[in-house]
Amino acid sequence: MTGHVVAIVQLPPPVTGLSAVNQRMVEELSRAGKLAAVANVAPPEGARGPHKHLGRLARTLSAAGLLIRARIRGVTTVYMPSDGGAGMIGNIALMLVARAMRYRVWVHHHSFSYLNRWSLLMWMQLSLAPRGVVHLALCPDMLEGLKARYSGPWQRRGHIGRTLSNAFMIGPTPPPVARSGPLVIGHLSNLMVSKGALRFIELFLAARAAGLPIRAEMAGPIWDEEVRGAIEAAQADHPASFRWLGPLYGAEKARFYAGIDVFVFPTDYVNEAQPVVLLEALSAGAAVLATARGCMACDHAGSPGLVSPLAGFHEAALAWLTEHATGDRRADLQREAEAAFSRMRAEAEAQLADVLAAI
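RE: above sequence
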């Protein structure tokens, strides 16, 4: 083992926001010469029900064994993202092993589920951790929320907070594309009710009913049958102005972002933290219309578009589209989006450099 960090992470497949960030962090630790070993604690691909939980348990036990062997060989540090739900039970077990073996621990947070409401499992994770655990939060709001909601164990165990935005994940963007024709709104995600797929379609239909000259592009795998029905109905009623493109990756996804003017993300997903899709869209010059979940209000205060509470999102977004659908500010919005993302990425790259130097 050449490095001094054991990474206990969930790696693709499947590709999710969490697994993508985990994969990138493993690569960054390896490039920096810090990585000693990796344990993948994601459930086995395709596992369902009891098989999924048994597979996760087996991999967690294997990771615990790796921690013991690595410590004997001189490894000193654990990097471990925190789960957002019942998977924190595994986090707690690994935290106890790390404490017994006197590891330094870094925990990377990717969920607001235990910030939106108090969680006994997170309280236990913080209470049973080694002293001086370093926590990586995605934005200042996330870090302050963690410290405030769990102030007791945070102070007792001497936890330390840092910020690391996911903006470092977004690579160089292609040259900007001049956009013309009707304003195009887009939504890309795992298409489900909680992620805002139905709200996106409702906003498009309301805009068309109001006479706005807009088109809609929707992409991603369909997870909910209710969403499938709404997509099919919208396509049937508006064949020239509504398209579902299916799952997109690589160059196809880049073309999707290059072809939209506004990225709409009206999510109410409980774990929502800092969606990479919003950062990708902003980097490509798209304005952002989003709900105030997770880090989104903190992140996009300087982005073109709006971030609104869910209760008033539809009305606020429709008013914004009404103002911009027939205006001549599209080039300005594109420049503002690209500039906002450039600032975010530069800050995130500096944060990542600090983390890699300190871990």
